[in-house]
Amino acid sequence: MSKRKVCVVVTARASYSRIKTALIAIQNHPDLELQLVVAASALLDKYGSAVNYIEEDGLKISERVFMVIEGATLATSAKSTGIGIVELSTTFDNLKPDVVCTIGDRYETMATAIAASYMNIPLVHIQGGEVTGNIDEKVRHAISKLADIHLVSNEDAKERLIKLGEFEDKIYVTGCPSIDLAKDVLDNPEMDFDPCEKYGGVGSYIDSAKPYLVVMQHPVTTEYSNAKSQAKILVEVIHELDINTFWFWPNPDAGSDGTSNALRSYREEFPNNKLRFFKNMEGRDFLKLLLHSKCLIGNSSVGIRECSFLGVPVVNIGSRQNRRLRAHNVLDVDFDKEHIKDAVLKQLEKGRIESESIYGSGNAGKNIADVISKIELSINKVISY
Amino acid sequence: MSKRKVCVVVTARASYSRIKTALIAIQNHPDLELQLVVAASALLDKYGSAVNYIEEDGLKISERVFMVIEGATLATSAKSTGIGIVELSTTFDNLKPDVVCTIGDRYETMATAIAASYMNIPLVHIQGGEVTGNIDEKVRHAISKLADIHLVSNEDAKERLIKLGEFEDKIYVTGCPSIDLAKDVLDNPEMDFDPCEKYGGVGSYIDSAKPYLVVMQHPVTTEYSNAKSQAKILVEVIHELDINTFWFWPNPDAGSDGTSNALRSYREEFPNNKLRFFKNMEGRDFLKLLLHSKCLIGNSSVGIRECSFLGVPVVNIGSRQNRRLRAHNVLDVDFDKEHIKDAVLKQLEKGRIESESIYGSGNAGKNIADVISKIELSINKVISY
Amino acid sequence: MSKRKVCVVVTARASYSRIKTALIAIQNHPDLELQLVVAASALLDKYGSAVNYIEEDGLKISERVFMVIEGATLATSAKSTGIGIVELSTTFDNLKPDVVCTIGDRYETMATAIAASYMNIPLVHIQGGEVTGNIDEKVRHAISKLADIHLVSNEDAKERLIKLGEFEDKIYVTGCPSIDLAKDVLDNPEMDFDPCEKYGGVGSYIDSAKPYLVVMQHPVTTEYSNAKSQAKILVEVIHELDINTFWFWPNPDAGSDGTSNALRSYREEFPNNKLRFFKNMEGRDFLKLLLHSKCLIGNSSVGIRECSFLGVPVVNIGSRQNRRLRAHNVLDVDFDKEHIKDAVLKQLEKGRIESESIYGSGNAGKNIADVISKIELSINKVISY
Amino acid sequence: MSKRKVCVVVTARASYSRIKTALIAIQNHPDLELQLVVAASALLDKYGSAVNYIEEDGLKISERVFMVIEGATLATSAKSTGIGIVELSTTFDNLKPDVVCTIGDRYETMATAIAASYMNIPLVHIQGGEVTGNIDEKVRHAISKLADIHLVSNEDAKERLIKLGEFEDKIYVTGCPSIDLAKDVLDNPEMDFDPCEKYGGVGSYIDSAKPYLVVMQHPVTTEYSNAKSQAKILVEVIHELDINTFWFWPNPDAGSDGTSNALRSYREEFPNNKLRFFKNMEGRDFLKLLLHSKCLIGNSSVGIRECSFLGVPVVNIGSRQNRRLRAHNVLDVDFDKEHIKDAVLKQLEKGRIESESIYGSGNAGKNIADVISKIELSINKVISY
């Protein structure tokens, strides 16, 4: 019997860590053949070249798909998605997968979902049924409507998908593969690298043995024009807190050029501060850096998901993660300089927090490969109402 | 106060009759400015050049957007949607609408929905919340998830959208504008034109004063490879029934070349039969033709919607309209030659059927313009669960 | 030693007969591996599905590339070329050819030339150095400037390319492969099929044993708006001549919808005339039909090229072939009803004309394969001035 | 009489300084209406946001066209050109220009040329007829073949175009507008700004009153894989020369990510050196910086063109400007560390060089506007052979 061909499209560094253990499990599964497509910002130096980590992890890449139109305006986000559909439909025509998997809610993920569903290829959506609170949420639930099979992080997501009209027998709670990586780090917690030395980056040298913060702030696409001013505020907060800080550059959503500009200005204005900027970090190292940090600041979903399992205090800013399921590690604030500063100080007082398994318990990758190898594949989907 | 700019994208002949009275009402509304974009197959001679009727109806066209990649394979449907996003995002950038409207569930409708929602323009979806039973249904509900406001045909659709997680205060029951046209025809029922004389077409002359059937069969995208053989069967059914028949060509979904081929072969095989083929007909004339027909055969939604109001018997074939709300005029059959023939004979016995208002009562266009002129516009959408 | 990978992109039915014997010779050459890409109108039913003939001829197709945006306006021609570049650069990335070949001067041929030269793949241009007299000429010479190697039809073309700044050692006179097919037909001249029976078509039955004309008229892209009226005039000429006529449908340049419309109107206006319309014909059969015809009328290059070798009288209309090298079989006229009629009558008086070898002597396919197998491949091109 | 609508498409910072005075002259001309389209890298922060300077110079922008697909591989250069054609054909459809102007030989310039010529809009090419020695040359001469009118820098270019088959009456020697800017700087030579203070940049502070070098090195697209290693060599040369140096970042051709990487590594390896990196500089300031520099090093055409007029010594490296017309200010070397170093030392000894007018004498902008206002516009082009 021939192996079931599973095409997974990875479009960003963040998505890769949300799927890595599943990719490895699919590649190693006796009944599955992995067709890995690396696309969009996952290919770009500017956004951390996830493609390099993918290759280092021993995953074989079937195709590379360039689809991001430069400019980071709202129109270029839309156009990049359009180009992605044009390109991925060729890719699927060539690879002829039995099933296509897409992950999460990033704007360009829609390109995978449309190309697959319009070409009558069964579509698996990983991370459906969650809520966040912005354009991402529109995209995520729209993809759920195009998807034939849902592999979700927790019972909360499953219940939501059922309410949203999906049939229960098409939904599998596998946990989120990002927690698999967090579990591995919790099991092997020693800080075994020097961030500045290993990753270069720009700014002051920071000793990771001393207390430090981590910042990861993404532009919010529905607040596009504010991207620059918000980044500026955050830069000032960190400056006033005066604690060593590792700062990660944002992903290529609309607005990211604004953020980058603010960071660059800052770097030139305050050359001798306690900041170190990175564009990216190997996933495992990043989790270790988080695990040993005093607090994560920003609006990254990593604060809600991985940090809940790692027990790291998080100050979550603004609307981007609005309605996502939270553990006790998260303190929410709006985009106000003083509120953010106060919240960080509160979290620093509390210290480490107990690990919670609300997004999985560490075996999601294996679960996902198993489900995909066994499910009945079909494209004749209806809703339950 | 400046007028609210309402951009409506019409992508097909069928969609045009689903929106025509609303377009006129928007154009005439004192607080609204219509920005009419005619795109995709609505521009193409091969699919009936809806654009000509639009101009004859006195509507001013703001932009024409060519986006259909020739080939009618599944991949070209996907690619056309991708090109549509690339093109429409430019269009929206130029027109700067306050709100974008999209209609129904055709594959390329997704291009409008993605371009608008990714560009942070409030999106109104007309005809959401209905069910049909195939790829169209995936597309329709996915668009509902991207839409900020829903203007629906009936309470059934409203209830379904609420169950699907949309907020009640974002849903307005306006009725379907296609029923506005049907009402006008019911009010003025006389058959005032000769179809063959007015529309040319190909085949035998048919006298519309004598009993006749109408056929309108679209390829079903999830049964792509069967398009040709199914069209053939239907051709044989009509041949055996031996009643005068007006037959309309299909729309440009994947598979339509297959259907066209079968029809062409037939025309050459049986040159002296009782068939007349048309590519299209002005909406009002088409409804009159239906009103006076003995039965509509095929899988067009016109059988389910307009014919319920007109009281015309319908033999609905196959899965395309599977789960759509039906009145008493519809008899459903699978794609079997004998079953189809039997069903037509049964409907011919019954004769005309009482008018039902399950898709509106004839004032939808005005309702839609009124709602759009008054609603609060916002893009910060969440689902209700 | 691995074989040299030769990627040839065929974009139209007409281009296929200009390259067919070369494709076969490349496929059979011990040092070459053919990578055949069938693209654009060569894939479309509407334009004769060259792809079917290609497969019947035993050629293995590596990729199919859909790139034609429907609409046949000038803008869609440009857009189709743009999409072609996007698609073909993916194709070349996948196939990794050692050399790419492109043929002639059709608008979409530019897509092949740009994709190859921008990707640093040596580009061979077949049929460079010829002159015609319209937009095609701009395209042809622009492609010559992008090409690294030129395989031309005759010394005239070679001399022109040298004058245009190309180096003599990059130009090979191979003859045109279309003449290879004409030679085969001259060697086996018997009319061994019935056109109407074998190819169907639309219109009256015509007996090919009796005297007949052939019409093949393409829209001229720089006279776009006239396409429809010109087709009408030609229809009238044929009607007044009152001789049996085989008429072939035009190719998908901008304006072709106009031509098709005029032909369709005519077919409906004069149902019982002496006309038979075909969309296409297998190349060999078409050449036999020409060989036995009394005269070819229109603006097809087949009149200038193949007919010079076949010795068939030609009435060449308008500017499309303006400056192309002619043999004694061609009579040129402008687009005037009376002038065209007079010219046809003159040609009918003359009868058959002696064969001339100005476009090759029948072994071009083999020559082309041999040159491609031996030339040094390089992309570092300069001009000679 | 309505004004002649002149659409100029500017795609890069470098192209802007090649056309700036012409744009101003067109905007101010009583018989012309400027339709300025800013596209491709001219819109991108990463490549110096020429768009900002354009607005500061008081030019009104009609449309912005994003078309660069991120990735900087050869395939993305091709794809960007394809997208450019798709987008610009919409732009031209909207603006309906009487004539389109394109400048130079950059890869994406082809998009303008194809969109205009395929849409039957007369095309003016500025800077045709020059030679350089790489892919740019293929593009430049291919565009000449698509162009209807040529506005060239000097008699040398005119003679070459005539040899290449263009008609003399379609060629106008206007001079190059970049020399207009150089003339203005020669007329007002005082160094009236501090580069580091005004432009920020990254690296050490450099006092422009002391002797300094300028580096401007572009990746060579036909030597793609070497981009990184070549940038490294150049970095070492400058390090060993140990003279203050202003270094400018490259433009977004294929290979530019490689160059950027090398520069970044260096900046981190040698933090306290005599280097200052800039992404861009307002044209006039850049010319002043050149005027007062001891030597320009690299492969930029500015060394060949503007510096010939300014009398600045230049060390021109590698093949990029291979065959361009030179004045006495240029010393050519291959890409060898020692050869480059020696050449710089030789130029430093010589000092300033006499101004030469081989690319114009300072009134090109006005000449261009005058020619465009008076020429007969036509698209029916043939070559002269």
Which chains have the largest interface? A-B, 53 and 53 residues
- Alpha plus pi helix count of chain A: 16
The value of Rg of chain A in angstroms is: 20 Å
- The number of E-state strands of chain A comes to 14
CATH superfamily of the largest domain in chain A: Glycogen Phosphorylase B
Distance between the termini of chain A: 37 Å
State the CATH class of the largest domain in chain A: Alpha Beta
Oligomer: homotetramer
Roughly how much helix do the residues of chain A carry, as a percent range?
40-55%
Topology as H/E string of chain A?
A: EHHEHEHEHEHEHEHHEEHEHEHEHHEEHH
Poorly predicted spans of chain A: none
Identify the CATH architecture of the largest domain in chain A.
3-Layer(aba) Sandwich
Tell me about the biggest sheet of chain A? 7 strands, parallel
